[in-house]
Amino acid sequence: MLELKRRRWANVAAIYCFLLLFSIAFMGPFVFALLSSLKDNPTEWPPSLVVNQLKPSNWTAAYRLAKEGGGSGLFGGFGPGGELSFEISYYTPPGQEPAPPEIVIPRRVVGGAVQALRVEYWAADYVQVVNLEEVERQPAGEGLLTTYRFTLRNTAGVALAEVPMDLTVPMRQQYVAATLTPNRIERLGRTQSWNNVSAGLLPYVFANYARVFRENYSASTGKQLFALWIRNSLFLALVRVVTTLVFASAAGYALARLEFPGKGAIFAFLLLSMMIPGQVTFISNYLVLRDGIFGLSRLFGVPTLLNTYTGLIVSGLVGASSVFIMKQFFERLPASLEESARIDGAGTYTIFFRIMFPLAKPALGALTILTFQSVWNEFFWPLVVITSPADKYPLTIGLLNLQRAYGAATFDWGPILAGTFISALPVVVLFIVFQQYFVEGISFTGTKG
After folding, report:
1. CATH class of the domain comprising 225-445
2. Over the stretch 279-317, which tens digit does the pLDDT of each residue have?
3. Nearest 5°: CA angle at 193, between 190 and 198?
4. Structure pTM?
5. Which of 36, 104, 260, 419 supports an S-S bond with 42, CB 3.0-4.6 Å?
6. CB 143: neighbour CB atoms within 10 A?
7. Domain boundaries in the chain?
8. In 333-413, alpha helices (H)
9. Residue 321 and residue 277: Cα distance in Å, rounded?
10. Contacting residues for 419 by C-beta, under 8 A, at least 6 apart
């Protein structure tokens, strides 16, 4: 008996270890990409899991510096007449006298030339460096560890959104620690650079995420493009979910419960359409939209459905797989429900809307997730149909624009990774909300009672 228990626990432990390794292999790249989306330099080599933005000491420092400077501890800012103190420590090797850093407030902004055009007040014109002093010197190995303190003062009558800073020391004098970890260390370690020493907690931690919204705007309307892309994708996904649930449930119920001529042929055609890849019908679908569905759209003054949301919605009102899922579900429900309702005088529409449709919640929940995910992540067909302007793009096409803006020219992958994870959030939230219905719907539609 004892030996049997040991074998059982050994099997459980083996299965647990296997699932743990599988989850690490499956989720490892996802977690690494998520951590990289927070980094200043996601392409650093060798790669590291250490992220300065996730260090509690930097959280405290970012909050305190912004608060001390007269801004918001959470959202940053450097208020009029505000002052903030900063400390930095260097290691000086033996035989070399420690030298205080050269402090420069550069005329620099994250995001390059496009963002520079939108800056109204430059910190370089108003921020003064005062009271630079050596506060501590102590032995460190064979050399010295020296700490300096200085104060930044805002002489402007307005609040400054960003305060970049560069500190430079002589060769061989090595950076050790600072009030806030620098965003970059350059020139063989001589220069330490900060994008914004008064960023505040949230802009410091989620800098790349803020850049996605702040740096992408429409040249014609001036609106933030990323927010528009999210709204466009949400609109298209919700409309497609509603149309799919309505048409798929009605068609599935008709194929499963009603008897009419050609029912078998229609179901066979349905199965056949599921076997044809979309690339085969791509050109014909494009021509149908180009001609306004055989010219019918011209009756409403619309010569073509290309570059319109109507074209995207009409071309995907409902999918064959969605009808098949609902048909399988309705076939599993007991026929006695309908028979009892018909004895009580209920008609077909009453049975469907008041009995069958409410019972279809598991299948409808699964269909909601599958449809929303499919439309939210759809790329090829919207890329063909929606061509301009950028304000009309769904999020997937917008992410392609991010890749062109940040990846190809500047090799700045932080905003691209941030935008990708923002795009994944709605699907994750939807699955969490509907996961019970999803599991039930898949199990119900997979068997026939």
Report:
1. mainly alpha
2. 888 889 999 999 988 888 888 888 999 999 999 999 888
3. 145
4. 0.85
5. 36
6. 18
7. 52-205, 225-445
8. 336-343, 348-351, 357-359, 361-376, 380-385, 395-402
9. 12
10. 212, 226, 398, 399, 402
